Amino acid sequence: MKKLLSILLMAILIATLFTFTGCSKPESLKFGLGTYAYTENVASAQGTKTGAMEVVSTIAAVLLSEDGKIVKCEIDCADTALNFNEKGEFVAIAEFKTKYEKGSDYGMVAYAGAKKEWFEQADIFEALVAGKTIDEVKALIANEGKGTDEVINAGCTIAIADFVSALEKAVANAKDSAATAEDTLKLGIVSSQTGENATDKDAGSNEVETTISAIASKDGKVTAAVTDAYQASVAFDAKGVTTTKAADIATKLEKGNDYGMVAYGNAKKEWFEQAAAFDAELIGKDTSEIAALATAEGKPVDALVTAGCTIAVSDMVKAAVKASK
Q1: Would residue 148 count as lying in a domain?
Q2: Into how many domains does the chain fold?
Q3: Counting CB atoms within 10 angstroms of each CB, which of 154, 158, 227, 297 has the fewest?
Q4: 244 within a domain of the structure (yes/no)
Protein backbone atom coordinates (compact mmCIF):
# COMPACT_ATOMS: atom_id res chain seq x y z
CA MET A 1 0.00 0.00 0.00
CA LYS A 2 2.83 2.35 0.95
CA LYS A 3 4.57 1.55 -2.33
CA LEU A 4 1.42 2.32 -4.29
CA LEU A 5 0.98 5.59 -2.41
CA SER A 6 4.59 6.57 -3.13
CA ILE A 7 4.12 5.90 -6.85
CA LEU A 8 0.94 7.94 -6.84
CA LEU A 9 2.62 10.90 -5.09
CA MET A 10 5.57 10.74 -7.49
CA ALA A 11 3.17 10.81 -10.46
CA ILE A 12 1.43 13.86 -9.04
CA LEU A 13 4.79 15.59 -8.47
CA ILE A 14 5.94 14.89 -12.04
CA ALA A 15 2.64 16.13 -13.44
CA THR A 16 2.90 19.30 -11.35
CA LEU A 17 6.46 19.97 -12.50
CA PHE A 18 5.44 19.40 -16.11
CA THR A 19 2.56 21.82 -15.72
CA PHE A 20 4.75 24.61 -14.40
CA THR A 21 7.74 24.05 -16.70
CA GLY A 22 7.06 22.24 -19.96
CA CYS A 23 3.64 23.80 -20.52
CA SER A 24 4.25 27.34 -19.26
CA LYS A 25 2.57 29.93 -21.46
CA PRO A 26 4.84 32.54 -23.11
CA GLU A 27 4.50 36.08 -21.76
CA SER A 28 2.19 38.36 -23.70
CA LEU A 29 3.96 41.47 -24.93
CA LYS A 30 3.01 45.04 -25.71
CA PHE A 31 2.89 45.84 -29.41
CA GLY A 32 3.44 49.24 -31.00
CA LEU A 33 3.99 51.11 -34.25
CA GLY A 34 5.71 54.48 -34.66
CA THR A 35 6.37 56.69 -37.70
CA TYR A 36 8.77 59.61 -37.73
CA ALA A 37 8.19 61.55 -40.95
CA TYR A 38 8.95 64.98 -42.38
CA THR A 39 9.59 66.82 -45.65
CA GLU A 40 12.80 68.60 -46.59
CA ASN A 41 14.84 70.04 -49.48
CA VAL A 42 11.87 71.71 -51.16
CA ALA A 43 12.96 73.47 -54.37
CA SER A 44 11.34 75.03 -57.42
CA ALA A 45 12.14 73.82 -60.94
CA GLN A 46 14.90 75.69 -62.74
CA GLY A 47 15.30 75.08 -66.47
CA THR A 48 15.94 71.40 -67.03
CA LYS A 49 16.38 70.77 -63.32
CA THR A 50 13.14 69.44 -61.85
CA GLY A 51 11.59 70.86 -58.73
CA ALA A 52 11.29 68.53 -55.78
CA MET A 53 10.21 67.86 -52.25
CA GLU A 54 11.77 65.00 -50.35
CA VAL A 55 9.53 62.96 -48.07
CA VAL A 56 11.52 61.20 -45.34
CA SER A 57 9.88 58.60 -43.15
CA THR A 58 11.28 56.05 -40.72
CA ILE A 59 8.89 53.41 -39.44
CA ALA A 60 9.36 51.11 -36.46
CA ALA A 61 7.33 48.24 -35.02
CA VAL A 62 8.13 46.91 -31.57
CA LEU A 63 7.34 44.09 -29.17
CA LEU A 64 7.86 45.31 -25.62
CA SER A 65 8.11 43.43 -22.33
CA GLU A 66 6.14 44.44 -19.25
CA ASP A 67 9.26 46.08 -17.76
CA GLY A 68 9.76 48.25 -20.85
CA LYS A 69 12.50 46.30 -22.61
CA ILE A 70 12.51 45.83 -26.36
CA VAL A 71 12.07 42.17 -27.22
CA LYS A 72 11.96 42.61 -31.00
CA CYS A 73 11.76 45.51 -33.41
CA GLU A 74 11.52 46.06 -37.16
CA ILE A 75 12.63 49.26 -38.91
CA ASP A 76 12.25 50.46 -42.48
CA CYS A 77 12.26 53.74 -44.41
CA ALA A 78 9.84 54.86 -47.13
CA ASP A 79 11.73 57.88 -48.46
CA THR A 80 10.30 59.47 -51.61
CA ALA A 81 11.15 62.44 -53.87
CA LEU A 82 8.11 64.21 -55.33
CA ASN A 83 9.20 65.94 -58.55
CA PHE A 84 7.71 68.45 -61.00
CA ASN A 85 9.11 70.34 -63.98
CA GLU A 86 9.33 73.93 -65.24
CA LYS A 87 6.09 73.44 -67.21
CA GLY A 88 4.14 72.76 -64.03
CA GLU A 89 3.82 69.03 -64.70
CA PHE A 90 4.14 66.47 -61.94
CA VAL A 91 6.58 63.62 -62.52
CA ALA A 92 5.13 60.12 -62.11
CA ILE A 93 6.99 57.64 -59.91
CA ALA A 94 7.50 54.32 -61.69
CA GLU A 95 7.79 52.14 -58.59
CA PHE A 96 7.77 52.58 -54.84
CA LYS A 97 10.20 50.52 -52.78
CA THR A 98 11.33 50.96 -49.20
CA LYS A 99 15.02 50.95 -48.34
CA TYR A 100 14.71 47.42 -47.01
CA GLU A 101 12.91 46.25 -50.14
CA LYS A 102 15.66 47.70 -52.33
CA GLY A 103 18.17 45.45 -50.61
CA SER A 104 21.60 45.56 -52.26
CA ASP A 105 20.19 47.77 -55.01
CA TYR A 106 20.07 50.65 -52.53
CA GLY A 107 23.75 50.99 -53.41
CA MET A 108 25.53 51.97 -50.21
CA VAL A 109 28.25 49.40 -50.82
CA ALA A 110 28.53 49.90 -54.58
CA TYR A 111 28.39 53.70 -54.68
CA ALA A 112 29.06 55.05 -51.18
CA GLY A 113 31.96 52.86 -50.11
CA ALA A 114 30.09 51.39 -47.16
CA LYS A 115 31.11 48.00 -45.82
CA LYS A 116 27.54 46.88 -45.29
CA GLU A 117 24.32 47.65 -47.13
CA TRP A 118 21.49 49.65 -45.53
CA PHE A 119 19.32 46.61 -44.76
CA GLU A 120 22.26 44.86 -43.12
CA GLN A 121 22.99 47.87 -40.92
CA ALA A 122 19.31 48.13 -39.99
CA ASP A 123 19.36 44.47 -38.96
CA ILE A 124 22.42 45.11 -36.80
CA PHE A 125 20.72 48.04 -35.07
CA GLU A 126 17.58 45.99 -34.43
CA ALA A 127 19.63 43.19 -32.85
CA LEU A 128 21.63 45.69 -30.79
CA VAL A 129 18.60 47.34 -29.16
CA ALA A 130 16.95 44.04 -28.17
CA GLY A 131 16.91 43.85 -24.37
CA LYS A 132 17.27 47.62 -23.96
CA THR A 133 14.79 50.19 -22.69
CA ILE A 134 14.00 53.18 -24.87
CA ASP A 135 16.14 55.40 -22.61
CA GLU A 136 19.08 53.07 -23.18
CA VAL A 137 18.42 53.20 -26.92
CA LYS A 138 18.32 57.02 -26.90
CA ALA A 139 21.74 56.97 -25.22
CA LEU A 140 23.15 55.25 -28.33
CA ILE A 141 22.99 58.49 -30.34
CA ALA A 142 26.31 60.32 -30.59
CA ASN A 143 27.55 63.14 -32.84
CA GLU A 144 25.54 64.25 -35.89
CA GLY A 145 22.88 61.61 -35.31
CA LYS A 146 25.24 58.67 -35.73
CA GLY A 147 25.66 55.94 -33.16
CA THR A 148 28.12 55.56 -30.30
CA ASP A 149 31.18 53.34 -30.59
CA GLU A 150 29.01 50.42 -29.46
CA VAL A 151 26.77 50.90 -32.50
CA ILE A 152 29.56 51.60 -34.99
CA ASN A 153 31.71 48.69 -33.80
CA ALA A 154 28.73 46.40 -34.22
CA GLY A 155 28.63 47.38 -37.91
CA CYS A 156 25.95 50.07 -38.03
CA THR A 157 27.72 53.19 -39.29
CA ILE A 158 24.73 55.09 -40.70
CA ALA A 159 22.84 57.84 -38.87
CA ILE A 160 20.46 56.32 -36.31
CA ALA A 161 18.70 59.42 -34.94
CA ASP A 162 15.57 58.84 -37.05
CA PHE A 163 15.61 55.15 -36.11
CA VAL A 164 15.50 56.13 -32.46
CA SER A 165 12.77 58.75 -33.00
CA ALA A 166 10.53 56.20 -34.74
CA LEU A 167 11.28 53.59 -32.10
CA GLU A 168 10.50 56.06 -29.33
CA LYS A 169 7.07 56.66 -30.89
CA ALA A 170 6.48 52.93 -31.26
CA VAL A 171 7.28 52.34 -27.58
CA ALA A 172 5.00 55.20 -26.52
CA ASN A 173 2.19 53.75 -28.65
CA ALA A 174 2.67 50.16 -27.45
CA LYS A 175 -0.43 48.47 -26.05
CA ASP A 176 -1.22 45.08 -24.56
CA SER A 177 -1.51 42.34 -27.16
CA ALA A 178 -1.63 38.58 -27.62
CA ALA A 179 1.81 38.59 -29.28
CA THR A 180 4.72 36.81 -27.61
CA ALA A 181 8.48 36.57 -28.11
CA GLU A 182 7.89 33.49 -30.27
CA ASP A 183 6.00 35.55 -32.86
CA THR A 184 7.35 36.93 -36.12
CA LEU A 185 7.30 40.74 -36.37
CA LYS A 186 7.06 42.37 -39.79
CA LEU A 187 6.27 45.68 -41.52
CA GLY A 188 4.34 46.06 -44.75
CA ILE A 189 4.53 49.45 -46.50
CA VAL A 190 2.61 50.52 -49.60
CA SER A 191 2.81 53.94 -51.26
CA SER A 192 0.62 55.38 -54.00
CA GLN A 193 0.87 58.64 -55.96
CA THR A 194 -1.70 61.12 -57.22
CA GLY A 195 -0.89 64.27 -59.18
CA GLU A 196 -2.35 67.20 -61.08
CA ASN A 197 -0.55 69.37 -63.62
CA ALA A 198 -0.69 73.10 -63.02
CA THR A 199 -2.61 75.47 -65.30
CA ASP A 200 -2.58 79.26 -65.58
CA LYS A 201 -5.49 79.32 -63.15
CA ASP A 202 -4.89 76.38 -60.82
CA ALA A 203 -1.85 75.09 -58.97
CA GLY A 204 -0.55 71.62 -59.68
CA SER A 205 0.24 69.02 -57.04
CA ASN A 206 2.22 65.87 -56.47
CA GLU A 207 1.09 63.74 -53.54
CA VAL A 208 2.11 60.45 -51.99
CA GLU A 209 0.05 58.44 -49.53
CA THR A 210 1.90 55.76 -47.60
CA THR A 211 0.01 53.02 -45.77
CA ILE A 212 1.76 51.04 -43.06
CA SER A 213 0.89 47.68 -41.51
CA ALA A 214 2.74 46.24 -38.53
CA ILE A 215 1.91 42.61 -37.86
CA ALA A 216 2.95 40.00 -35.33
CA SER A 217 2.13 36.45 -36.34
CA LYS A 218 2.60 32.86 -35.25
CA ASP A 219 2.22 29.80 -37.47
CA GLY A 220 1.04 32.10 -40.27
CA LYS A 221 -1.80 33.60 -38.23
CA VAL A 222 -1.94 37.24 -37.10
CA THR A 223 -1.69 37.74 -33.34
CA ALA A 224 -1.43 41.56 -33.30
CA ALA A 225 -1.83 44.31 -35.91
CA VAL A 226 -1.69 48.07 -36.26
CA THR A 227 -2.42 50.05 -39.43
CA ASP A 228 -1.47 53.69 -40.03
CA ALA A 229 -1.00 56.04 -43.00
CA TYR A 230 0.30 59.48 -43.87
CA GLN A 231 0.02 61.89 -46.77
CA ALA A 232 2.52 64.42 -48.11
CA SER A 233 2.08 66.78 -51.06
CA VAL A 234 3.84 69.62 -52.83
CA ALA A 235 2.04 72.37 -54.78
CA PHE A 236 3.51 74.31 -57.71
CA ASP A 237 2.44 76.77 -60.40
CA ALA A 238 2.55 76.54 -64.21
CA LYS A 239 6.22 77.57 -64.20
CA GLY A 240 7.28 74.96 -61.67
CA VAL A 241 7.59 77.39 -58.78
CA THR A 242 6.61 76.10 -55.35
CA THR A 243 5.87 77.90 -52.10
CA THR A 244 5.37 74.68 -50.10
CA LYS A 245 7.48 74.65 -46.94
CA ALA A 246 9.28 71.76 -45.30
CA ALA A 247 7.35 70.44 -42.32
CA ASP A 248 6.83 67.54 -39.95
CA ILE A 249 4.22 64.97 -41.01
CA ALA A 250 1.54 63.68 -38.67
CA THR A 251 0.09 60.27 -39.48
CA LYS A 252 -3.65 59.62 -39.63
CA LEU A 253 -3.55 57.86 -36.26
CA GLU A 254 -1.69 60.81 -34.76
CA LYS A 255 -4.25 63.26 -36.13
CA GLY A 256 -7.07 61.35 -34.44
CA ASN A 257 -10.34 63.29 -34.58
CA ASP A 258 -8.56 66.16 -36.34
CA TYR A 259 -8.32 64.07 -39.50
CA GLY A 260 -11.90 65.21 -40.03
CA MET A 261 -13.73 62.30 -41.62
CA VAL A 262 -16.67 62.74 -39.26
CA ALA A 263 -16.68 66.55 -39.27
CA TYR A 264 -16.12 67.07 -43.00
CA GLY A 265 -16.70 63.72 -44.71
CA ASN A 266 -20.01 62.75 -43.10
CA ALA A 267 -18.50 59.48 -41.90
CA LYS A 268 -19.95 57.77 -38.85
CA LYS A 269 -16.52 56.89 -37.49
CA GLU A 270 -13.15 58.64 -37.69
CA TRP A 271 -10.23 57.12 -39.62
CA PHE A 272 -8.43 55.84 -36.50
CA GLU A 273 -11.61 54.09 -35.36
CA GLN A 274 -12.11 52.44 -38.74
CA ALA A 275 -8.44 51.40 -38.84
CA ALA A 276 -8.89 49.80 -35.39
CA ALA A 277 -11.89 47.85 -36.72
CA PHE A 278 -9.78 46.73 -39.69
CA ASP A 279 -6.94 45.63 -37.39
CA ALA A 280 -9.33 43.65 -35.20
CA GLU A 281 -10.52 41.73 -38.27
CA LEU A 282 -6.92 40.72 -39.08
CA ILE A 283 -6.46 38.76 -35.86
CA GLY A 284 -6.33 35.02 -36.48
CA LYS A 285 -6.18 35.36 -40.26
CA ASP A 286 -3.49 34.16 -42.66
CA THR A 287 -2.25 35.92 -45.79
CA SER A 288 -4.91 34.58 -48.14
CA GLU A 289 -7.69 35.47 -45.71
CA ILE A 290 -6.32 38.99 -45.36
CA ALA A 291 -6.18 39.40 -49.16
CA ALA A 292 -9.88 38.48 -49.31
CA LEU A 293 -10.89 41.45 -47.13
CA ALA A 294 -10.98 43.82 -50.13
CA THR A 295 -13.20 43.60 -53.19
CA ALA A 296 -11.80 43.92 -56.71
CA GLU A 297 -12.66 47.63 -56.51
CA GLY A 298 -10.73 48.03 -53.24
CA LYS A 299 -13.82 48.37 -51.09
CA PRO A 300 -14.21 46.55 -47.76
CA VAL A 301 -16.08 43.24 -47.75
CA ASP A 302 -19.29 42.92 -45.74
CA ALA A 303 -17.48 41.60 -42.64
CA LEU A 304 -15.38 44.77 -42.47
CA VAL A 305 -18.35 47.05 -43.07
CA THR A 306 -20.28 45.31 -40.30
CA ALA A 307 -17.26 45.72 -38.00
CA GLY A 308 -17.25 49.47 -38.68
CA CYS A 309 -14.65 49.86 -41.45
CA THR A 310 -16.36 51.48 -44.46
CA ILE A 311 -13.40 53.29 -46.03
CA ALA A 312 -11.42 52.13 -49.09
CA VAL A 313 -9.10 49.37 -47.88
CA SER A 314 -7.11 48.44 -50.99
CA ASP A 315 -3.74 49.78 -49.74
CA MET A 316 -4.48 48.69 -46.16
CA VAL A 317 -4.97 45.13 -47.37
CA LYS A 318 -1.89 45.26 -49.62
CA ALA A 319 0.26 46.48 -46.71
CA ALA A 320 -1.15 43.83 -44.36
CA VAL A 321 -0.53 41.11 -46.95
CA LYS A 322 3.09 42.25 -47.24
CA ALA A 323 3.53 42.21 -43.47
CA SER A 324 1.87 38.82 -43.01
CA LYS A 325 4.07 36.96 -45.51
Answers
A1: yes
A2: 1
A3: 297
A4: yes
